[in-house]
Write a structure and sequence with these properties.
Blueprint (H helix, E strand, L loop, with lengths): L2 E5 L7 H10 L1 H6 L2 E3 L5 H5 L9 H6 L6 H20 L3 E5 L8 H11 L4 E8 L2 H16 L5 H4 L7 H4 L1 H11 L4 E6 L9 H10 L20 H10 L6 H13 L14 H23 L24 H25 L1
Parallel strand pairs: 1-3, 1-4, 2-3, 4-5
Helix pairs in contact: 10-14, 13-15
């Protein structure tokens, strides 16, 4: 029977990079019986750009279950997904982190409706909570114009509590879908996997694809250095386009400052300990029942010193180095535009 694999995220677990690799490796995957469906943001990802996956419209249509317009939208997106599944040359892969943001009962409804077309498997990656919060904070600076320092921003972190209580969340999912295979792995394990996140994902879905046939890790959506985070906060006062922050990070990566797994230690130590303590018991149960082995998140302390963004001061040479990379990038983009005229 055909398998229908829903890669659900969660957020801040490398979904965009994985979607790029899936898109760029589609022909190879087809040879081994797996079809990453050419829908939604497939074309963007194939170009190596950030997208929301190949089925974001399907996931979003299940965000709200009431109202005539929502019902019609849901019927339309479900029909398109079913048509794609039936036309697929092998097992089907859909990917969007928006699946992980759906209310449990809504995701269960979608899975139930897709089950008529094959065996549905849900694939999740989780991220240690302090690391998630830092990544989410940096993303707000990069793409949403945030100017607040961590101690000003993080008092609002309570909105993440329920979703980041992994044992509680996946227990509810399991009870809502007792016959559905739910595969979960900590995102952090991809750092040591021979084929990275893509390899770990393929292992989880039973796709034995040689590493040589896969596209390389695109390394998109990277984390800038603390100095660049601080600089971006200042730039945000002038309302830049989101593309500007992308250029800053691209330049940072070329200069060797941005890292795909970089974990900026910008949480105030007391607040960091509060988070670790809050999630400790839930994490213990999560690893025991859903992952197996020791609580990796209790052992995630990396020993790096706290970086207080509010106390970062810029040396002229640092600013010149960062801005020079940006200016060169802008110059190259202008040259491409001129050549196309």
């Amino acid at each position: 029977m055909k398998k229908i694999i829903l890669h659900c995220g969660m957020r801040k677990t490398g979904s965009s990079a994985l979607q790029v690799q899936l898109s760029q490796s589609r022909e190879t995957l087809l040879q081994f019986g797996f079809d990453y469906i050419r829908m939604g943001g497939f074309a963007l990802a194939e170009q190596g750009k950030i997208s929301s996956g190949n089925c974001v419209a399907l996931a979003q249509s299940y965000g709200q279950m009431r109202g005539d317009r929502n019902v019609e939208r849901r019927k339309k997106t479900l029909s398109a997904a079913v048509k794609a599944i039936r036309a697929a040359e092998g097992h089907v892969i859909f990917s969007t982190e928006f699946f992980s943001t759906l209310p449990v009962q809504n995701l269960a409804k979608l899975v139930d409706e897709l089950s008529a077309e094959g065996d549905v498997q849900l694939v999740f990656f989780t991220r240690e909570q302090t690391s998630f919060l830092v990544s989410d904070y940096v993303q707000k600076i990069k793409r949403h114009g945030l100017q607040q320092f961590p101690d000003e921003y993080f008092p609002s972190w309570e909105k993440h509590k329920n979703r980041l209580m992994y044992f509680s969340h996946f227990t509810k999912l399991s009870h809502a879908m007792p016959d559905v295979k739910i595969s979960i792995q900590p995102y952090e394990l991809s750092k040591t996997h021979p084929s990275g996140l893509m390899g770990m994902f393929l292992d989880m879905i039973g796709a034995q694809v040689p590493k040589e046939g896969l596209a390389s890790d695109a390394q998109i959506n990277l984390s800038p250095s603390p100095m660049e985070i601080r600089l971006m906060m200042e730039i945000n006062k002038h309302g830049p386009r989101m593309k500007f922050s992308d250029m800053l990070v691209e330049s940072s990566h070329k200069a060797g400052r941005a890292k795909i797994h970089s974990q900026q230690v910008i949480l105030p130590p007391r607040f960091k300990q509060e988070i670790v303590d809050f999630f400790h018991d839930d994490n213990e149960e999560f690893f025991k029942h859903f992952v197996g082995g020791e609580n990796l998140y209790q052992l995630s302390e990396n020993g790096d010193e706290f970086v207080d963004l509010s106390k970062i001061r810029f040396e002229a040479s640092d600013v010149v180095d960062i801005l020079s990379g940006l200016l060169v990038d802008i110059d190259r983009r202008v040259a491409k535009i001129e050549a196309a005229l």
